[in-house]
Amino acid sequence: MLRSDFDKQIKECMAKHLEQVNNDKWRSKYHIIPPIGWINDPNGLCEFNGEYHCYYQYSPLTPMGGLKFWGHSISKDLVNWEDKGVALYPDINEDKDGVYSGSAFVKYDTIYFFYTGNVKHAGDHDYILTGREQNVILVTSKDGINFSEKKVVLRNTDFPKDMSLHVRDPKVWEENGIYYMVLGARTIDDKGCILVYKSTDLYNWEFHSVPAGKNEDMGYMWECPDIFKLENKDILMFSPQGMEAEGYKYNNVYQCGYAVGSFEDDKKKFNLGEFVEIDRGFDFYAPQTFEDSKGRRIVIGWMGVPDAIEHRNPTIDNFWQHQLTIPRELVLKNNKIYQIPIAELEALRKGNSFKKEISLNEVAILDIFESNTFELNFNFKECDEFKIELREDCNISFSNGVFKLQLGKSGYGRNMRAVEINNVKSLRVFSDNSSLEVFLNEGEEVFTTRIYNDKIDSKLKLSGSGTVEVEKWAF
Ligand code: FRU
User: Fold this and answer.
1) pLDDT at site 97
2) Which one of 128, 262, 275, 305 is at 20 to 30 Å from 121 when CA atoms are compared?
3) In whole angstroms, how far apart are CA 415 and each of 134, 275, 346, 451?
């Protein structure tokens, strides 16, 4: 279909639904949200000519997901985002069933975008071994807004023979003058893995290796791989599908995490360390990182999970669904990734603030919230257990070495996520109209969830042992 026809459809859809979308009390204040319809993975993250670009998987025509475009949001400070509407349309034969996920690579005055063009053929197919194309497509831009012609650089026939038709989500980086591309894949015998391709000009790519996945038993498909360095160590971040839950681990339908490892043998092998979940739930998937001009490695994730049938998002009744997370800086400490909300978010602290030291030995009720958009910090002293209640029915607790996040009715099916942890010294909570991001011990563990409580609950309820310093800023 032509861009102009898509534009007409989107315009009509906006005319019908925009007011309803914008009047929703659960619309987020400082997160990237779809103007209407559906959002999933962040794509093409980059800083270019002093601006941050966040593209994203976007279905403007339905809040249930469907035909995917790339939406586009721009920011000067990673806090205030301006939505620019559709950037890439599914308008050629090689991407006609979706402009799927991909990344940006900046070189001199040009952004090179690599994404997956999804194609589904009509007929009786399983769409795993037959009936699908996943093409790696390159488009370039000098301003992030206007794009070159699309050029297909890899097709399924360029992938190894033992791969199924699921090979997607390219991420490109440069090392010693050589360009590398990692792709996520599913083998014909249902093993998740990554492929690495090599290029000297960004246009011609040759197969290099399958450095990880074939010897690990970690699910049937690895989506959205990302390879980068922290403290000079090689990190592989990816979203495996098909891992079994183990106690409090891997409780989401699909997983998302990283391994601190090392490339060996000229990138023929990625020596995978232990797989660690990057977020404990409920809503985090398909994250992507980029390095900004300050040298920070920044991650943004999708605040959602595909096929999560056990919980729902009531915003679909108002014609939108899902959002992205706040940008978080990644730091490696003792071989573990810590996620730290980027410093720029302090600019949100515009409203009333509150700070007090509270004894936890008896129940304390503080009347401190005038909205659902705030930041809340806790610093615990001599405390080995606590219970915190906020936003009507959200319970955050720590006892016997287990930290738990529990939601009631406002979770719409989200019940409990937990992590085993020796000590919780601090908590930092970012609350938006329909989300919570909870950072333990300065980002050692993170819980990201949507939450849909009906009213604004002004109360914070606390109990436990020891004392806590509570600090709140309204946004
Ligand atoms: C991850 C994912 C990607 C794919 C995209 C399609 O959520 O399934 O693998 O490219 O979403 O929207």
Assistant:
1) 98
2) 305
3) 36, 24, 30, 11
